[in-house]
């Protein structure tokens, strides 16, 4: 059986992976593979779903954050490369969005959070992420031609900074919040927004990892992390290649919104 971390009591210092139960290993690896495949096809890392799954399985909250951020990095690194290669990553806009968010993600990750505070914040963040996914599913419409407006880079940079802070505090890369904002503002085309989201998630996740290292609270159990990393790398590479041909972010929302909403509401109720 899994050794579970209570959402109410003190967190155990270490959660061990049970090698005697390969069914648990295979189940989590399959879920992470599926999440990485779906999210990377739309330019996301999957951090919200990784956290939802780990929370439902009772993993220690510090290990959750570290694992989700590392999986984000593993997935979107390939996505950033493929979007850039296909001409869907405008670097000037990418740096405008990330200039404030990177230090804010570091600060967010460095801030001390108790377990109860973390799960409350994560519950709110996951619920909001589910709402964003539902927006993409029900209200976005694919068009042959997309209008792109001239946008104020400073305003979007500040918005990115706020998302970066939330990213660092929770372990969510932030792309799931950034993409709807950019879409509503007609900041760029859908494929370019996917590329920008990938870049945003990558730099914020790296910054979040450094924030945890700086406060000496980073937790890695490689018996947990390594098989999950392998699963998301494979899934992410497949998804990133699919995204270069067919981009259907609404299916990502359809496949994951229920899971994230359930996990978010469950945390808030507890």
From TrEMBL:
<keyword id="KW-0472">Membrane</keyword>
<protein>
    <recommendedName>
        <fullName>Probable membrane transporter protein</fullName>
    </recommendedName>
</protein>
<feature type="transmembrane region" description="Helical">
    <location>
        <begin position="118"/>
        <end position="138"/>
    </location>
</feature>
<keyword id="KW-1133">Transmembrane helix</keyword>
<feature type="transmembrane region" description="Helical">
    <location>
        <begin position="94"/>
        <end position="111"/>
    </location>
</feature>
<keyword id="KW-1003">Cell membrane</keyword>
<feature type="transmembrane region" description="Helical">
    <location>
        <begin position="63"/>
        <end position="82"/>
    </location>
</feature>
<feature type="transmembrane region" description="Helical">
    <location>
        <begin position="219"/>
        <end position="239"/>
    </location>
</feature>
<dbReference type="Pfam" id="PF01925">
    <property type="entry name" value="TauE"/>
</dbReference>
<dbReference type="InterPro" id="IPR051598">
    <property type="entry name" value="TSUP/Inactive_protease-like"/>
</dbReference>
<feature type="transmembrane region" description="Helical">
    <location>
        <begin position="193"/>
        <end position="213"/>
    </location>
</feature>
<dbReference type="GO" id="GO:0005886">
    <property type="term" value="C:plasma membrane"/>
</dbReference>
<comment type="similarity">
    <text>Belongs to the 4-toluene sulfonate uptake permease (TSUP) (TC 2.A.102) family.</text>
</comment>
<feature type="transmembrane region" description="Helical">
    <location>
        <begin position="158"/>
        <end position="181"/>
    </location>
</feature>
<keyword id="KW-0812">Transmembrane</keyword>
<feature type="transmembrane region" description="Helical">
    <location>
        <begin position="251"/>
        <end position="269"/>
    </location>
</feature>
<dbReference type="InterPro" id="IPR002781">
    <property type="entry name" value="TM_pro_TauE-like"/>
</dbReference>
<feature type="transmembrane region" description="Helical">
    <location>
        <begin position="25"/>
        <end position="56"/>
    </location>
</feature>
